[in-house]
Amino acid sequence: MSSAKPTVVVLGGCGFIGRNLVEYLIENDLVSKLRVIDKVSPEIAWLNEKQKTIFNHPLVEFVSGNLVHPATCELLFLNSAGSDSNLTWEYVINCAAETRPGQPDQIYKEGIYKLSVNCATAAARYGILKYVEISTGEICSSNKHKLKESDDHHPSSLIAKYKVQVEKALHDIPGLNFTIVRPGLVYGKSDRHNIGIY
């Protein structure tokens, strides 16, 4: 890898975590190219004014797609019209997941497990340098003691149930170089679920 800034794909980049990550990467001049893939377009996502400006930055490319479908995952790595034909995507950060509360089990299974495995499988096939899976801290016990990576998981929600399954499945994908991030409570500006809009 050269000393140039990396090329990054953010899956679920219009969701709460994704749009804040996109803002951070562009605002801090950390990428040479950034592709955002989401089933929700920036025009109807809950972007604040600053994020709307960020999504119009020349380094940001939006691709509409439902990542539950394997064919869409193949589009992740194709070069867009007019872009450098030698462009390769180095990092994929998966912020995409069905996280709306109160959905049926099957919706979470498809929108978390199937989606994540599809994306990770495609990333491995294309030789992505690093795949980052945003999981959840809810997969761990709520007991107030230190945990080890080897401790049993005790998911506290359907979302966490399928995030645990994703974490296990990533280990079985040949050639996938991955990192799992387990944030605790996620909230902030424009949050609509955990703390409320502020």
Tell me about this structure.
Residues 8-192 form the NAD-dependent epimerase/dehydratase domain. It comes from Cacopsylla melanoneura. This is NAD-dependent epimerase/dehydratase domain-containing protein. With 198 residues, the chain is α/β, with parallel strands linked by helices. The chain has a single domain (7-181), classed as NAD(P)-binding Rossmann-like Domain (Rossmann fold, 3-Layer(aba) Sandwich), CATH 3.40.50. 29% of the residues lie in helices and 15% in strands. It contains five helices and six strands; from the N terminus they run E-H-E-H-E-H-E-H-E-H-E. The protein has helices at residues 16-27, 49-54, 70-75, 105-125, 158-170; strands at residues 7-11, 33-38, 60-64, 91-94, 130-134, 178-181. The chain has a six-stranded parallel sheet with strand order 3-2-1-4-5-6, with helices on both faces. The radius of gyration is 17 Å and the shape is globular.
Task: Compose a concise summary of this entry.
This protein is an alpha/beta fold.
Span of the ends, CA to CA:
41 Å
What does the radius of gyration come to?
17 Å
Number of strands: 6
Strand order of the largest sheet: 3-2-1-4-5-6
Indicate the percent of residues in helices. 25-40%
Q: What's the CATH H-level homologous superfamily? A: NAD(P)-binding Rossmann-like Domain
What is the averaged pLDDT score?
86
Count of the domains: 1
Overall CATH class:
Alpha Beta
Shape: globular
Kindly report the CATH topology: Rossmann fold
Structural class: alpha/beta
> Main beta sheet: strand number and arrangement?
6 strands, parallel
Number of helices: 5
**CATH architecture assignment name:** 3-Layer(aba) Sandwich
Work out the strand percent: 5-15%
Q: Spans of 5+ residues with little confidence (pLDDT < 50)?
A: none
Could you give the order of the helices and strands? Answer: EHEHEHEHEHE
